[in-house]
Every structure is written in structure tokens, then in C-alpha cells.
């Protein structure tokens, strides 16, 4: 282990070109550094390359060129299996559409985060209940997700993302499906998590959301600019 | 990934849509049921026919000894003792009967009574003292000759019960005699109730030493009785015991083994239904493949989520494979149960004893699981190939 904890994300000259006709340059020479404990919002209109950036950061897509260090590990040279393990270990995803399994209880949905990647089965439920307590969902542990409100569902999804203590919480339009009251609750939760030292990266097009972040980065036509 | 987690996830996947899963198993259920009924009923019916083979025929072996022109006898009169030593043999007897001895003139006395037919053309057979036991008969009158008669070459005969009636010999008091080719022989007994070698009931039986004078020098046939189940073994061993150097010249007539009889029946019954069952299984497999493929397409976002949670492609493939295998195995279990119940019902209706092969009951779920596994290969491959970024879109 290095003496100094490495930065969570270091992107250097990352480009992503989709080989269509004509080729689409979704990311152009993107450079980004996110330090431990940062709360960063990436804003931009649709079609600006937001999703490509998210997929690249989430190790769901490979850049065409450039370098991406996640927690000090160069990811562009890794094989599929190693990227999968790294993704499971270091990144917690929060999606706009929650992606909760409808036939499983809240607790089971949260526990799903530890099914892959060699986590012990012992005390898994206890850890899930702790994560649910952190997001204030202890009273809905054995509910099916279908009986929760949108805000509650997103909090369950956040609890799932927090399982396994990821280095980074990667949120894709986390409030896109929520009304203003629930949006407020989720953003308050993000503030709380940030205060606990968690690194947050939120991709959004809503100014209300990005305003809460400590740092705003705008993406437009695949080019990143700090605000 | 812990195998228990894989199991739990697959089980949850199957149970998430219970009605669909139940309907998906139907094809496998039908196929396995058909197969189990076909094999079970055939085995039961086959056993039923085997059951008709009574103990008598299943334990009777006859060894035919061909005549050897020019050479010595293939089987000596004392050779039956060698067969008697074999384990599983209950009784043995050698006898001699030739063409010329089969049509000898036998009369009860030398009076010529124009009102009665006293002369008969009867077969004369030489046999050793074990003959009543080996032919499964009993002495109706008098006694059979013994080793002493044989040694001394006494001119005694035992009549078959039909032969005695034809000759008018009804009582042995006064030591009646019969004339074979005008030589007198004392009748000492009447043999009846024959279980095998019915021909003896119309024959005149003489000791081998006496028969030598009538052209009955060599053993032509050996009757062997075995304990139940030993017939196969004794049929192989008896010729060697009788004639070690020329055992391959002897002809053994042994009862058909139960196994062979059963196989014959199964071949007749099975063909069509086996094909029917296999076709149902293929249809079932196609059904499982189809539904699993639909399920994979419906669960694209779930696949994306699992990939984002750290699931490798093989984890995704393993889960869908296990789900389709579980569905197939469930079909196999239900099919085996339904099939076995049907076999018992058919047996009850026919008043048969149901024969259930335990291996069949165990193999059916395995076959169902195999069908599910094969059916799940393509959908699982499709699920594993999915790019997580696309799946989450």
C-alpha cells in the first residue's frame, strides 16, 4: 500500500470513438481528477457524452485511447474479468430507474450487492440492515420494492450501492424519476454520505442537484470543462 | 461466487414467475411421464409373462446325445453321477431309446385271444434307477428297479401307466409278465403322473443291462432337473460333466431364461411409445429454451445490474443454466411421479404385480435436468454475451 491514498479517479486524455459511419466522438481528450471525499456533479444536456463518461468511469465501457486510473489501478489494460471484479469492489452504482428486483424484498435487494466477488455469507443480512439504517429505510426491510415510493426505492438502491464500502458512488440521474420532495430527501442523504467521507460522482442535468455538489464539471460535445 | 448464492439466485429466478415456470415444465412432464409409463408398463407386462413360466419348465434340462457311428458311446451310463455332483442339480437320469426300440411288439401273454387285442406296438426304453425322480413321476403300482436289478441284469420291466392299461396289466399280484419280441419280462411296477417325458407313459422301461439285448446299448438322452434359477448355469456345465472330451457334440435343451422372455416383450411394446416420449421431451426442451429466452430478454436490466454489481459473464450464464435445469428437473420429478402412479394404476386394473425399476425413478429427474440444461444453453449464452452498458440503458 502506498503511504498516501491515491486519488479515486484520474482520467488522462481519454477518448471514446464509436465506430459508426460517420464515427461519433463521444469523448474527446477528457482529463478528470477526483480526490477521495470529493462530491462532484457532472452536468450537461442529453447527447453531450454524459452516458459514455458514466459507462467509462463505471468500467462498463472501454475508452478508445487514454488512461483511466481507478483507485491507483490502470484499468484500460485490464482484462474483462479483472475489470468486473474491480467494478464490483470499488464502485457503487445508483441508477435513475433504481433497478431493484421486483420479486425480492428490500433486504434481499440490498444483499444482492454481496452475492458476487467473494464476500462472506456470514452476517450479510446484518450488513444489509446496517446499510438500510444508514439511508433511513429500516422500517421497510421486508417489503417488496413495488410497495415503496420512488424516493424510498432510490434510498434502497443507495443502500445496495453502499454495501461492500465502495471507493466511489457513481450516480446516474439519481433524482430523474423523483418528485421535488423525494429529490430533497435523496440529496440530503448524499450530503450526509459526503460528510462521512464517501466519494460521490453525480451525473445530472438538473441544476438543483448539481448545486449541492462541491464541484461542478460541464460536459458538452464530449469535452469536459470545470465550472 | 458462493455456490449457495448461485443456487438461491436461480431458485428465486424460477419462483419469481411461478405460473410461467409451472407451464414451462409441462413439456418435460409429458415427455418423462410417457417414457416412464412405457418402460414401466413394459417391464410389468414382461414380468407377467415371465411369471407364467412355471417352476417345472424353468428347471428342466434335456441333453440329447447323438449316436456316433463307429465310435464308442459319447455318454456312459455312469456319467449321470458326474452331473448329480453339480451344485444346483436336484435329479439326473440317463435313458436310451432308439428307432428300432420304439416299435417293438409287446404282449401281456402268449395266448392268442381272438376277442381281444393283446399285442401292442410299444416303445421300449432303457433307464437308470433314478428315472422316476428325474421324470417327476411316481410309482402307481409296485416299485422301480434298483441298482441290484441293474447289476444282475434282471429281466424286469416297469410299465408306463398308459402302456399298462393298453396291455391290460392292472394288478401286480402274481408277478405278471410281458413279452417283448417273445421273451418274457417280469413287471415289477407301473410308473405314472409324469411331470416331463410324457412319452414314458406309453413305454416299457427296462434296466440298461437288460436293454443292451434289445439294442439299447448307449445313452441317447439325459434328463436333468435343477433348483430354481440354476438352469442357465447347469445347461452350460452339464455337457462338460457328461462328456468332457466331446461336450460340444451334445445338444442341450434348456428353458428360455426369464430375461430373454422379458426383453422380447419389451421390444414389441416399446418402440412406438419410446419415440413418442422422446419427441415429447424434445418439444419440452424447445419450450424451455423458448421461455428462457423470453425471460432473458425480459430481464435485460437485471442482467445489467448484476454485471454492475460484479457478476462475471460466467455467473450470468450459470444462473440461467441452473434456472432452466431446475425447471427441467422439476418436470422430470413430476413426470416420474405421474408415470409411476400410472404404471401402478394400469397394473391394478390388469391385476398385475407392478414392476418398478428404482433406476427408472432416479433416472427420470436426471433426464429432465439434462433436457433443461441443454435447452438453457443458448439463452444462457445470449444472457452472458450481453454488454452491461447496453443492458442498463
UniProtKB/TrEMBL annotation, chain A:
Keywords: ATP-binding, Nucleotide-binding, Transport. PANTHER family: ABC TRANSPORTER ABCH.1, IMPORT ATP-BINDING PROTEIN. One of its GO terms (molecular function) is ATP binding. InterPro entries: AAA+_ATPase, ABC_transporter-like_ATP-bd, ABC_transporter-like_CS, ABC_transpr_LolD-like, MacB-like_ATP-bd, P-loop_NTPase. It comes from the Bacteria. This is ABC transporter ATP-binding protein. Gene3D superfamilies: P-loop containing nucleotide triphosphate hydrolases. Residues 9-227 form the ABC transporter domain. Pfam families: ABC_tran.
From TrEMBL, chain B:
It is found in: Cell membrane. The keyword Cell membrane applies. It is a multi-pass membrane protein. Its main location: membrane. InterPro entries: ABC3_permease_C (IPR003838), MacB_PCD (IPR025857), Macrolide_Exporter_MacB (IPR050250). Residues 21-225 form the MacB-like periplasmic core domain. Keywords: Cell membrane, Membrane, Transmembrane, Transmembrane helix. Pfam families: FtsX, MacB_PCD. The keyword Transmembrane helix applies. Residues 275-388 form the ABC3 transporter permease C-terminal domain. The chain crosses the membrane at residues 272-296, 317-348, 360-381. Belongs to the ABC-4 integral membrane protein family. PANTHER family: ABC TRANSPORTER PERMEASE YTRF, MEMBRANE COMPONENT OF TRANSPORTER-RELATED. This is ABC transporter permease. It comes from Streptosporangium pseudovulgare.
Amino acid at each position: 500500500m502506498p503511504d498516501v491514498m491515491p486519488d479515486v479517479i484520474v482520467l488522462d486524455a481519454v477518448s471514446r470513438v464509436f465506430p459508426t459511419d460517420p464515427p461519433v466522438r463521444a469523448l474527446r481528450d477528457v482529463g478528470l481528477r477526483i480526490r477521495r471525499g470529493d462530491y462532484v456533479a457532472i452536468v450537461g444536456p442529453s447527447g453531450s457524452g454524459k452516458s459514455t463518461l458514466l459507462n467509462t468511469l463505471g468500467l462498463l465501457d472501454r475508452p478508445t485511447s487514454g488512461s483511466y486510473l481507478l483507485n491507483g489501478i490502470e484499468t484500460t489494460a485490464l482484462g474483462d474479468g479483472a475489470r468486473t471484479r474491480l467494478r464490483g469492489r470499488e464502485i457503487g452504482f445508483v441508477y435513475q430507474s433504481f433497478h431493484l428486483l421486483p420479486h425480492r424484498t428490500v433486504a434481499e435487494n440490498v444483499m444482492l450487492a454481496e452475492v458476487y466477488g467473494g464476500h462472506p455469507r456470514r452476517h450479510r443480512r446484518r450488513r444489509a440492515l446496517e446499510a438500510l439504517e444508514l439511508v433511513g429505510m429500516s422500517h421497510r426491510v421486508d417489503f417488496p420494492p413495488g410497495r415503496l415510493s420512488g424516493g424510498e426505492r432510490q434510498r434502497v438502491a443507495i443502500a445496495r450501492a453502499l454495501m461492500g464500502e465502495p471507493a466511489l458512488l457513481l450516480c446516474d440521474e439519481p433524482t430523474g424519476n423523483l418528485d421535488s420532495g423525494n429529490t430533497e430527501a435523496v440529496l440530503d442523504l448524499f450530503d450526509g454520505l459526503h460528510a462521512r467521507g464517501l466519494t460521490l460522482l453525480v451525473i445530472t442535468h438538473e441544476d438543483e442537484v448539481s448545486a449541492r455538489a462541491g464541484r461542478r464539471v460541464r460536459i458538452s460535445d464530449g469535452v469536459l470543462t470545470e465550472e | 461466487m458462493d455456490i449457495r448464492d448461485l443456487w438461491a439466485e436461480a431458485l428465486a429466478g424460477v419462483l419469481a414467475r411461478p405460473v410461467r415456470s409451472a407451464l414451462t415444465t409441462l413439456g418435460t412432464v409429458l415427455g418423462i411421464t410417457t417414457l416412464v409409463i412405457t418402460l414401466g408398463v413394459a417391464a410389468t407386462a414382461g414380468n407377467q409373462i415371465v411369471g407364467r413360466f412355471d417352476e417345472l419348465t424353468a428347471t428342466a434340462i434335456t441333453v440329447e446325445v447323438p449316436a456316433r457311428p463307429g465310435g464308442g458311446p459319447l455318454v456312459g451310463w455312469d456319467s449321470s453321477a458326474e452331473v448329480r455332483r453339480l451344485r444346483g442339480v436336484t435329479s439326473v437320469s440317463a435313458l436310451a431309446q432308439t428307432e428300432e426300440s420304439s416299435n417293438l411288439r409287446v404282449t401281456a401273454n402268449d395266448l392268442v385271444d381272438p376277442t381281444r387285442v393283446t399285442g401292442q406296438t410299444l416303445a421300449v426304453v432303457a433307464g437308470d434307477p433314478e428315472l422316476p425322480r428325474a421324470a417327476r413321476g411316481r410309482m402307481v403300482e409296485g416299485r422301480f428297479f434298483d441298482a441290484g436289478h441293474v447289476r444282475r441284469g434282471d429281466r424286469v420291466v416297469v410299465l408306463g401307466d398308459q402302456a399298462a392299461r393298453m396291455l391290460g396289466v392292472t394288478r401286480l399280484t402274481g408277478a405278471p409278465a410281458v413279452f417283448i419280441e417273445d421273451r418274457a419280462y417280469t413287471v415289477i411296477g407301473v410308473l405314472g403322473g409324469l411331470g416331463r417325458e410324457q412319452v414314458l407313459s406309453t413305454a416299457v422301461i427296462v434296466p440298461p443291462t437288460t436293454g443292451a439285448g434289445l439294442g439299447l446299448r448307449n445313452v441317447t438322452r439325459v434328463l436333468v432337473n435343477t433348483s430354481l434359477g440354476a438352469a442357465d448355469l447347469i445347461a452350460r456345465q452339464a455337457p462338460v460333466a457328461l462328456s468332457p472330451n466331446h461336450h460340444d457334440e451334445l445338444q442341450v435343451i434348456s428353458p428360455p431364461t426369464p430375461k430373454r422372455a422379458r426383453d422380447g416383450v419389451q421390444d414389441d411394446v416399446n418402440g412406438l411409445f419410446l419415440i413418442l416420449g422422446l419427441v415429447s421431451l424434445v418439444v419440452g426442451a424447445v419450450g424451455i429454451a423458448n421461455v428462457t429466452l423470453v425471460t432473458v430478454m425480459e430481464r435485460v436490466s437485471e442482467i445489467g445490474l448484476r454485471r454492475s454489481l460484479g457478476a462475471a459473464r460466467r455467473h450470468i450464464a450459470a444462473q440461467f443454466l441452473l434456472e432452466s435445469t431446475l425447471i427441467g428437473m422439476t418436470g422430470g420429478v413430476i413426470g416420474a411421479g405421474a408415470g409411476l402412479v400410472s404404471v401402478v394404476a394400469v397394473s391394478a386394473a390388469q391385476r398385475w404385480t407392478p414392476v418398478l425399476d428404482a433406476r427408472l425413478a432416479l433416472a427420470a429427474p436426471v433426464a429432465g435436468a439434462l433436457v433443461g440444461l441443454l435447452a438453457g444453453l443458448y439463452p444462457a449464452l445470449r444472457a452472458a454475451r450481453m454488454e452491461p452498458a447496453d443492458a442498463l440503458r
